[in-house]
Specification:
The structure is a homodimer. Helix content of chain A is about 70%, strand content about 5%. Chain A has 10 helices and 2 strands, in the order ααββαααααααα. Chain A is globular, with a radius of gyration of 21 Å. At the A-B interface, helix 3, helix 5, helix 8, helix 9 and helix 10 of A face helix 3, helix 5, helix 8, helix 9 and helix 10 of B.
Amino acid sequence: MRISELVERSGVPLPTVKFYLREGLLMPGTVTGRTRAEYGEEHLHRLGVIRALIELVGLSVQQVRRVLALTATPVGSPLELYGVLGAAVGTLPPEVPAGEASVAHPRARDALERLGQIYDPDYAAVAQLERAIAAAEASGVLLTDARLDAYGRAARDVARFDLDQLPPDPAEAVEYAVLGTALYEPLLIALRRLAHQDLAARRLGVSPSD
Amino acid sequence: MRISELVERSGVPLPTVKFYLREGLLMPGTVTGRTRAEYGEEHLHRLGVIRALIELVGLSVQQVRRVLALTATPVGSPLELYGVLGAAVGTLPPEVPAGEASVAHPRARDALERLGQIYDPDYAAVAQLERAIAAAEASGVLLTDARLDAYGRAARDVARFDLDQLPPDPAEAVEYAVLGTALYEPLLIALRRLAHQDLAARRLGVSPSD
């Protein structure tokens, strides 16, 4: 398709498409004339991914470039795929302040040990877990073992579902890991709040339409 | 205790304590002299709550005032308690743009119907659910019924645990609902990412210490 059709079908304005081309986020089309290039479905797909990462996930152009480079990383072994997936998800917010990235995370370590999970202090979410537990402690709402078990089990149920859908192709797997991690977090959060509402109404014996 | 001890034990600086007193977020102490007042454990507790709401949850002074007013609302019936809890949790981010607050939320309605839960378009989290589903759709990572079921079940498991801990005293219940909703969200998010990591390592047969 011509660039005009790409603009129309993607809904991304022409100046933005040209910007992504210049920045190397969108791969060039096939040159078919002095001022003409031909684009395919892969360009349309790529535009959708870039847009989701920038507009919905809130990544910067630099972060998007890093994620896209990871989708293009040749993956020769399961260990390499594991590393690429971790690096891709590590670009997502919340950003971990540099000072917290490579220090010990004692609360997170204890929690992960209790859950029987890997503790790798360099994995971005470990610092996030440390922060989350420290924040709860600071507020006086303690993280009991019973709560950790309940939350850990629920998180694992969701993660098992997510992993079952992981595409076998490494490039698609990276895309899915980044978009799926980021875009389904607000879903899980909203569903938790709505489950609170529903259970509270049932337990209190009220109907919101009263 | 004197105000100096309140400052020391709470870790909140004197000018900030005075600001909270002026703003009415912290209730006045008992006057014991021309320039003296006596503070108790309830002041220390209140300072911890204010601090958590502002520093950890990110609420504005106005939002904290609204939450604290709700903890002081006389609650005569379960329906009133249900309303107060909903209003308190409704002060939390993410803020719903005014234009989205009182419109129909067709995606959220369908999802909640499928889950067999209450659909109340005025409840803040409904607009959040609508946004989350729309964002996933826009990115091309569809929300399948199977995913909704898996996430809905996990959210409900967590919510059931949370509700089991709801304090019987209405003021404490409001505090717990607001702090517990906000402070345990990052925990659940971090645990999901770490469960992804752990499950990916197991399925790929790798050990991160390799």
